[in-house]
Amino acid sequence: MTLITYQQSLSIAEQSHRARTEKLLGSQLALITPWSIGILRSSGESLNTDLIGTADSGRLTVIRFDGVVLFDSSQVASSMSNHRDRPELLQARALGIGRAERFSSTLNQELLYVAKPVWSNNALIGFVRVATPTALMEQAAIEEARRMALMSFLLGCLLLAAFAFYNNRQIQALKEIESSLHALTEGNFSSRAHLQTNQAFIATFQALNQLARKLQSQKEAQLADDAHFETVVETLKEGILLINEDQRIELINPSAARLLEVSSERLQGHPLWGNLALGVLIDLVDNVRTSGRPARQSLEIFDRTVLADAYGVASQSSARASTLVVLQDITERTRMDEMREDFMRSASHELRTPLTAIQGFVHTIIEDPDMPPSLVQNMLSKVSHHTSRLTELVNDLSKLNRVNAERMLSVSSSEVDVEEVVRESLEKQSARVNDNQLEVEMTVSARCRPVVMARSDVKRMVEELLDNALRHAPESSKLSISLEQTDSSLRLSIEDQGPGVPEQARDRVFERFFRLEGARDRMTGGSGLGLAIVKSLCESIGGKVWVTGGSSLGANFVVELPN
User: Fold this and answer.
1) Do 128 and 89 contact (CB within 8 A), yes or no?
2) Residue ranges of the alpha helices (H) in 368-452?
3) Helix (H) or strand (E) holding 287
4) Most CB contacts within 10 A, which of 48, 209, 290, 499?
5) 421 closest CA partner among 544, 550, 545, 559
6) To 10 degrees, the CA torsion angle through 17, 18, 24, 30?
7) Which residues touch 546 (CB under 8 Å, ≥6 apart)?
């Protein structure tokens, strides 16, 4: 919308007021015409002179068709000149209404004339004319122009204020959009644009907030995935290292840090060559990068045997690939493999010895049919002895295998009264005790608590310890058994007065098939598996077992079970 000046408003006001004045004068003519017919018919003789001078600001004139003035509200009609050539009358005769603006010598001022023809019986009998001073119109136009200018000014101020308000809202909306976009670029996806009532930006704000919600959802999903990945990596038993193209550590999990005996924070970002333990990985990583294929290497890191697997990992940000190294501590597995091999060798040897003896005796008897009966009987007695030893060995192997299988299957545990189990086992071995004329002394602490363990395991452990003591106890000797409660465990000790265990062999006496070369095992010929079974059962619940020398002679085997 364009604002108008005072001159423009004045021109508009003049035109508007002139049109209204002409319309008003035309309306007056329509009212005066019937009255003027009477004047025109009587040629002014019946004129009502009361009308003269009634128009304070206007002029009324009645003119006969030939131009003679019959009546004028401002002048004596007889003194006025003929009006037949007046332009307003000529125009009225031609168009039905005439208008003219000119200087009146009679009134000595500028007037606006409006004339209308008067007809009677289809014949023109004259004219009626009204006039008004143009000065009045100009004054009215000036007043109206002033009002229009004032209204235009006020309207302009209002429009300016409205535009400023609208523009300010637009700017605020754009600033809000800019702020939201800046927050999104900074990674603050929880930021939201506040909706404005401005319809032009509501759709933009809604789209921006929808984008923020989607980005926030994606970020939360990514964070959840990262947290899940981090949890998996941190809880892996295997050590994980991610090494970049510059052979610097980008990622190391706690298991790898424990294997390398370093802090993961201290190694983050450090090169492989900066740490002695990590230096052994340099050749493995170089091998993967050179060949482009996974590589495996067994390493000795401090006192551990570690199996290292390395894989190339493609990187989107670099042409060179990173390397993922997986470390597995196989120290225990290696030790178990060695123990298994040693066990197989020992088992083969232990089985081969009685089998070879049995085969030899049987072959000798078969080859010599004439062998004296007493010699045959002697050889058969030895065959029986080796057969019994072979049976005992197989039974002990079966026991050991069953113990390990039950440990893997996690046999259900319960509270077990160890004193009760010891007394049951003693009752079971009462014949052997009586045959060897042994004195059994049992001491039990008054506050012994039960242990949580499979009852069958407690029974097997006690029986193996008793069997070991009965096999090594001399005739007419003393067997001492004690149960003592400590702060957190129950301690069972069984002491015999046999040959004892040398101090240098006490750590190995619980190994499978280990037998002393001294008098203790030569006298009894044990399989070497009983004490290994005791140790396996004891350690399955976190207990300990050891052997010391007796109070005088013999050996004292002690089992400590947590309770």
Assistant:
1) no
2) 373-409, 418-428, 430-435
3) helix 282-291
4) 499
5) 559
6) -170
7) 506, 557, 558
Q: How far is CA 131 from CA 111, 128, 390, in A?
A: 6, 10, 156
Instruction: Tell me the Ramachandran region of residue 513: left when phi exceeds 0, alpha when psi lies from -120 to 50, beta otherwise.
Output: left
Q: Which fold has domain 6-141?
A: Beta-Lactamase (3.30.450)
Does pTM surpass 0.90? no
Q: Which amino acid is at 48?
A: N
Q: Which of 514, 513, 515, 482 is nearest to 499 (CA)?
A: 515
- List, in sequence order, the alpha helices (H) in 56-198: 87-95, 134-185
User: What distances in angstroms separate CA 498 from CA 6, 92, 479, 501, 528, one per listed residue?
Assistant: 137, 163, 10, 9, 17
Same fold flag, 6-141 and 411-562: no
Q: What confidence tens digit (pLDDT) does each residue in 170-220 have? A: 777 677 776 777 676 766 666 666 655 556 667 777 777 777 778 778 877
411-562 CATH fold:
Heat Shock Protein 90 (3.30.565)
The DSSP 8-state label assigned to residue 271 in this structure reads B
Helix (H, G, I), strand (E, B) or coil at 78: helix
φ/ψ of residue 473, rounded to 5:
-75, 130
Specify the fold of 330-409: Helix Hairpins (1.10.287)
- What's the CATH class of domain 236-329? alpha beta
Q: Which of 441, 455, 454 is nearest to 550 (CA)?
A: 441
**Best CA proximity match to 132, nearest among 124, 120, 141, 123:** 141
Q: pLDDT at position 17, please? A: 66
Residue-range domain boundaries for the chain = 6-141, 187-229, 236-329, 330-409, 411-562
Alpha-carbon torsion 185, 191, 192, 193, what sign? negative
